[in-house]
Amino acid sequence: MGKYKATIGLEIHAELKTKTKMFCNSKNDADETRPNVNICPVCMAHPGTLPVINKQAVKSVLKVGLALDGQLADFTEFDRKNYFYPDIPKGYQISQYKYPLVSGGELAGVKITRVHLEEDTAKSTHDTVGHSLVDFNRAGVPLMELVTEPVIENAQQASRFAKELQLLLRYLGVGDANMEKGEMRIEANISVSDTEEFGTKVEVKNLNSFKVVEKAIDYEIKRQIKEIEDGGKIIQETRGWDESKQETFSQRAKEGSADYRYFPDPDLPKLKLSEIPEFSKENLNKEIPELPWEKRERYKKDFGIKDEDIETYIIDKLYGDFFEEVVKELSENKDLIKLASNYITSDIVGLKKTSSIEGFDGIEKNNFSDLIKMAGAGEISSRGAKDILKILFNEGGNTKEIAEKNNLIQKNDEGELKEIISKIISENEKVVQDYKNGNENVIGFLIGQAMKEMRGSGNPVVLRKLLEEQLK
Description:
ten-stranded mixed sheet; 472 residues; alpha+beta
């Protein structure tokens, strides 16, 4: 970028996982495929209906705020955000403006401006011949909006922040945040400048994957720099992302807060949160689990496993829970835990990728732990461990019985191994002479021949030791 500096702020909307919608009793079901079935007179804005605040949704946002170390509001209220669009049945959206539920906080090194609560819009579908259809199942679903400070400097940092927020929502159990389902939507405010002053802000809306977040931000930064370099002027506007063209496109002029004519919703009560016992920090803290960054630190400190392994466990609960169970079985032996982690993140992950089996099927924690103990003690080879693991995954069974049945127990008896070594030495005189002439690398060939003779059941470590002794 040379002399130009990019400044990025994110606005992230995430649907909350509640049984009902934000202001009515209609079902909140992101998996419903039939259009317009989870609706009622309240979320369809029939005259004379009155909204009622969803207590669980408020609590969910407060838990997010606590995890972000933000300032939880004492007084809060809901406002009407006025604008007309077919997916807003009331002609306004119930949101929060002056008094958000959470102010401040930080996540992944990025400062947070606010976190507030509102209702989602309906979902519009546009076909190729100009028809538009509106599904109101989503209208009125509780929607958390998080706004960052304009402190993000590049697309990769923006993507990292969004991924960390998705993890946080899942760990807290307040939202699934599946971007492919529209449960989490990202908007980026981007500007570039060659001075200390901020440039003109451009909003890019509805970025529906982490890859698209990165591509859209990178493209928009380059577009703005080129526009300035060519003598043009950046216009404050809202843009979209065209996946087929891999570029942003202009949608409309960007509205300001005055355009929405915010005012407190007269149908909803003001909230004094300190008067609601279950919203106290003490009670909320009881429902906050170990958070992703806390778990990372613990895994690194207690087990010393690789960063890539840790991320596998942090991101995928299936692997994380299995790892935690195995750790207990291995009595927190760090060497065995590291070995177990290698097999989980390479072999088990690999087996899962090529299988339609749910979970780990036959790989029970005690059998897997036995496998690791046997491999760590040299009772089975690395190759043998992989073969046993595959059988466990596909068929189940007992680790030791599988090892014995398939002749995978490594032989460590030096008397038996010496006989095999003598035979290999007598059959490979030229290789033996090469070794004695200084080419020590050929010992690998001799070990291989011995393993072949023993059908893989010899312990290669013991075989090397005995070969070196006999070849002196």
